[in-house]
Write a structure and sequence with these properties.
The chain is an alpha/beta fold. The chain has three domains: about 1-45, 434 Repressor (Amino-terminal Domain) (Orthogonal Bundle); about 60-150 and about 295-320, Response regulator (Rossmann fold); about 165-290, Rossmann fold. Helices cover about 45% and strands about 15% of the residues. The chain is built from 13 helices and twelve strands. The protein has helices spanning about 5-10, 15-25, 30-45, 50-55, 70-75, 80-95, 105-120, 135-140, 165-180, 195-210, 225-240, 250-265, 295-310, and strands at about 60-65, 95-100, 125, 145-150, 160-165, 185-190, 220, 245-250, 270, 290, 320, 325. It has a six-stranded parallel β-sheet, with helices on both faces. It has a four-stranded parallel β-sheet with strand order 7-6-8-9, with helices on both faces. The chain is elongated. The N and C termini lie far apart (about 60 Å).
Length: about 325
């Protein structure tokens, strides 16, 4: 037989109406009471009727997560799995579900978001990448749909966003390379339209400038966040330039760069990554990289959005998650 809300209330020692408020994460219910009710639901294996709850509250208790349009990239790059872990862990603790979506084109992404909101399938959405002049953000703003982004948007005042200080993180990385005696440092970043690429490149350029080193545009490449992209970019760099070190914006790009150096029998060139993904630990020596705490990025993006959905007043509309330079051991 299906467990009823009255049985949950009896076991938790509260009224049925309190259980209902816990299911909607009502801000006036104490955390202790919420924990007691959730414990009772788990013990009784109670599953709330999502359709009934939706009709009663006009809320789906579901958050959309817009993933990159490149499915292969999603499968290869641990960053998105880590973000998803942070988002789902926090969302579940607040009684929310996650719905994943992606599309092959920008127009397709907008259509997908439009469908999810018009069909009342989600209450809000988290975007995992931020682009310059992003049509998805424009659509969400024009229609007043709740959203949060992972990355630094152009409008930081009226957008819920979570990011690292990518400028400072790359600045510290390149500054470290220079201190180690490298003078001819190349840069391989992602697409130029991504704000993360823009910010990390700015850190690279500032580090060179502050050390009196010349910026050579031939030493800068933009590729997809993939091993193949890093491989081809490195081959192009070495055909045109004398290189001491290569600073990349992702561990996958860095691994591709290392493979190219091996195939070309090039030694003594330092390659750095970003994200501190497990693949970097399998390199010899372990990859010099940056820990960006991707799980925390997901956690705080979900927190910002869920707080907004529940009309919780907060002075914060953004979080900056700490980074750490991971040196060779």
């Amino acid at each position: 037989m299906r467990v009823t809300i009255k049985e949950v209330a009896k076991l938790a020692g509260v009224s049925p109406s309190t259980v209902s408020r816990v299911l909607t994460d009502h801000p006036k219910i104490s955390q202790a009471t919420k924990d007691r009710v959730w414990k009772a639901m788990k013990k009784l294996d109670y599953h709330p009727n999502v359709t009934a709850r939706k009709l009663a509250t006009n809320a789906t208790k579901t958050i959309g997560l817009l993933l990159p349009n490149d499915v292969k990239l999603l499968a290869e790059n641990p960053f998105f799995i880590q973000v998803l872990t942070g988002v789902t862990t926090y969302a579940q603790s607040k009684g929310y579900y996650i719905m994943l979506t992606n599309a092959e084109t920008r127009e397709g992404e907008v259509e997908a978001l439009n469908h999810l909101f018009r069909s009342n399938l989600i209450d809000g959405v988290i975007m995992t990448v931020v682009r310059e002049e992003d049509p998805c953000i424009e659509f969400l703003r024009e229609n007043n749909h709740p959203y949060a982004v992972i990355g630094r948007p152009n409008d930081t005042d009226s957008t819920l966003w979570v990011d690292n200080d990518n400028f400072q993180a790359m600045y510290e990385m390149v500054n470290y390379l220079i201190k180690e005696g490298n003078q001819k440092i190349a840069f391989i970043g992602g697409s130029k339209e991504l704000t993360v690429t823009k910010n990390r490149r700015a850190g690279y350029e500032m580090a060179l400038k502050n050390r009196g080193l010349h910026l050579d545009e031939n030493m800068v490449k933009g590729v997809k966040f993939s091993e193949a992209g890093g491989y081809e970019a490195t081959k192009d760099l070495l055909e045109e330039n004398d290189v001491d070190a290569i600073a990349t914006t992702d561990d996958l790009i860095a691994v591709g760069a290392l493979k190219a150096l091996k195939d070309l029998n090039k030694e003594g060139i330092t390659v750095t990554g970003f994200n501190n993904t497990p693949i970097g630990n399998y390199q010899t020596p372990p990859l010099l990289t940056v820990e960006i705490n991707a799980v925390e990025l997901g956690h705080y993006s979900a927190k910002l959005l869920i707080d907004k959905l529940n009309n919780l007043e907060s002075a914060m509309n953004s979080y900056i998650v700490d980074t750490k330079l991971i040196k060779e051991s």
